[in-house]
Structures are given as structure tokens and as C-alpha cells.
Automatic annotation (TrEMBL):
Family of the protein in this entry: Belongs to the FCHO family.
Gene Ontology cellular component terms for the protein in this record: clathrin-coated pit; clathrin-coated vesicle; plasma membrane; presynapse
Coiled coil residues, start to end: 85-112
Name of one Pfam family that matches: GMIP-like_FCH
Keywords for the protein's UniProt record, in alphabetical order: Coated pit, Coiled coil, Endocytosis, Membrane
Location of this chain's protein in the cell: Membrane, Clathrin-coated pit
Gene: FCHO2
Membrane topology: Peripheral membrane protein
Organism of this sequence: Anabas testudineus (Climbing perch)
Protein name (record): F-BAR domain-containing protein
Length: 328
């Protein structure tokens, strides 16, 4: 037996309503799956951008010291990781388009199904209406029959008993007519409900299969990204292992080396008095003058030089002069 027929029948005949709304819930699930994948794509994109920013930071780290070349390994590896996550974003965006396309197709299919099961809905409403009328007519029939019997037992007048009998008979006929109507409505309802239940089940099976295909595509995209990330990580580990201490020292020597030739020995050189004397001559100093004070034309220039010298300058000059005299 069909699951729909087996689990969605009952006295109130509400199975159609449950199955119909369950079909509509499938469309809600599709939209929610779209939102989930879109949110995952947003997270992956934000992570990829952060990794790209981190890679740039690694490229800007200090290039001084023996460890500096290792930052290139970090930069390259981080850029590849960012690329892996951006590739996943691209795949998820493509998957979102496919899911959205399915949501649109699903909406059209549901609209078509609603038109196709309209007669079943009428049969459901008909049998529900007849069921209510049947129940009410049964209650009236029972009440009128009991009333007639009560009057007979209590010894009421024949007229009252006959009058109650007429009402009981009418209630009996109404009750029987609804029983017959219910039988006809039930037959029509069960036939249409069986066809509609099959249709709902086909829709649900197709929906679940399609959702599983979407999830499998999602899982495959994530799995491929994880494989790529694993490869990048393994490459990073290999590059670090292959970066030996000797290679780092060699790179330092090649990039920062100050030369391979050693300077020769320094020998004793005799003092060249002419050069020494020339180097010992005092430099002319600009006389110190008090701003605003006029120079005295009659003042001797040599005397003015000594007067304007500071004590330290005068002592230095004297020492130089004495050395010069001793050399003579």
C-alpha cells in the first residue's frame, strides 16, 4: 500500500490537507537550503578575504635576518589557501543558481498539481460536509426515536404518540438518505484520494531525491576544497622541511655579504713632517663680533684676533705654534 493511503486516512478525512501542505513545505525547505548554502558561501568568502589580507601581511614582514626567506613560504601557502576558499565560493554560487532554478520549477509544479487535485479537494469537502450532516441526522434520528418510545411507555395519548412517530419516521428517512449519500461520496473520495495520494508521494520522492542531489553536490564541493587545502598544507610542510639551516645561511651570505677578499696587513709608516706641518696649520676663524657694535679702524688686526679668541681656541693655537717651532 502507498504510504499516503496507509497513514493519511481517517474518520475526519484530513489526509488530503496534510499531504497538500506537506508538498508546500517542500518548497519552503528548498528556499531554506538556498539560504544555508548562500550563508556558507558568505562565510567562505569572508575567510578567503581574511587569508588574502594575512598573506599580504606576511609579505610585508621584516626582510632582515636569517629567518626572512621563510616568510615567502608563509605568503605563498596562505595565498593558495585563500584561492582554495574562493574556488569553493565560486562552486557554491553556481550551486545556489541550480537550487534557485529548482525552487522556481517546484513552484510551477505545485501550481499545476493544485489544479490537478482540485476535484479531489471537492470530494474531500463533499464527504466532510456529508459526514457532518450524517452525524447530525443520526443524532436527530436517535432523539426522535427515543422520544416516541418514551411517550408510548408513559401512556401518552395516541395522537401524541402518532405525532412523535411521524417525526421519528422523517428523521429515519433523512438519516438513511445521508448514509446512502455518504456511501457514494466515500466511494468517489477514496478513488480520487488514491490517485492524489500517489501524485503527492511521487512529488515527495522526486523532491527528496532532488534535495539529496543538491546536498551531494554541496558535499562534493566542500570535500574537493578540503583535499586542495590538504595538498597546500602538505606542500607547506615540505617547503619548511626543505628549508635547511644551511640554505638560510647561504641566502644571508649571498644577499647581505660584505665581500670575500680579506684586507691586507697594515705596515708602519714614518711621519712626513711636511704633511704633518701642513695638517697642523690652524684654520682661520671668523672673528666674534657683538651685534650692533662698530669696528674700530685703528685696532690692529692681529690684536683683534687674539682678543676675539676663546680660551680653548687660544690654547689650541699656542700648542700648534710650539710644535711648529720645535720642528724647525
Amino acid at each position: 500500500m502507498l504510504l499516503a493511503e496507509k497513514a493519511f486516512t481517517g474518520e475526519k478525512n484530513n489526509g488530503f490537507d496534510v499531504l497538500y501542505h506537506n508538498m508546500k513545505h517542500g518548497q519552503i525547505s528548498s528556499k531554506e537550503l538556498t539560504d544555508f548554502i548562500r550563508e556558507r558561501s558568505t562565510i567562505e568568502e569572508a575567510y578567503a578575504r581574511s587569508m588574502t589580507k594575512l598573506a599580504k601581511s606576511a609579505g610585508n614582514f621584516s626582510q632582515l635576518g636569517t629567518f626572512a626567506p621563510v616568510w615567502d613560504v608563509f605568503k605563498t601557502s596562505t595565498e593558495k589557501l585563500a584561492s582554495c576558499h574562493m574556488e569553493l565560493v565560486r562552486k557554491l554560487q553556481e550551486l545556489i543558481k541550480e537550487v534557485q532554478k529548482y525552487v522556481d520549477e517546484q513552484a510551477k509544479a505545485h501550481k499545476k498539481t493544485k489544479e490537478e487535485v482540485a476535484s479531489t479537494l471537492e470530494a474531500v469537502q463533499n464527504i466532510q460536509t456529508i459526514s457532518q450532516a450524517l452525524q447530525k441526522s443520526k443524532e436527530i434520528y436517535n432523539a426522535k426515536t427515543v422520544e416516541q418510545e418514551r411517550l408510548r411507555k408513559e401512556g401518552a395519548t395516541q395522537r401524541d404518540v402518532d405525532k412523535a412517530g411521524v417525526k421519528a419516521k422523517k428523521a429515519t428517512e433523512t438519516y438513511k438518505s445521508y448514509v446512502e449519500k455518504y456511501a457514494t461520496a466515500k466511494s468517489d473520495f477514496e478513488q480520487k484520494m488514491a490517485e492524489t495520494a500517489q501524485k503527492f508521494q511521487d512529488i515527495e520522492e522526486s523532491h527528496i531525491l532532488h534535495m539529496k542531489e543538491i546536498i551531494q553536490a554541496y558535499a562534493q564541493s566542500v570535500d574537493e576544497t578540503h583535499i586542495q587545502i590538504g595538498e597546500v598544507h602538505n606542500e607547506f610542510v615540505r617547503n619548511i622541511e626543505n628549508t635547511s639551516v644551511e640554505s638560510l645561511i647561504q641566502k644571508l651570505a649571498e644577499s647581505k655579504g660584505t665581500g670575500k677578499e680579506r684586507p691586507g696587513p697594515i705596515e708602519f709608516e714614518e711621519c712626513n713632517t711636511a704633511i704633518a706641518t701642513e695638517g697642523a696649520k690652524p684654520r682661520k676663524r671668523k672673528p666674534f663680533g657683538i651685534p650692533g657694535r662698530k669696528k674700530d679702524k685703528d685696532t690692529d688686526s692681529t690684536s683683534l684676533l687674539f682678543l676675539t679668541m676663546s680660551t680653548a681656541s687660544f690654547v689650541s693655537y699656542a700648542h700648534s705654534f710650539i710644535s711648529f717651532c720645535l720642528c724647525l
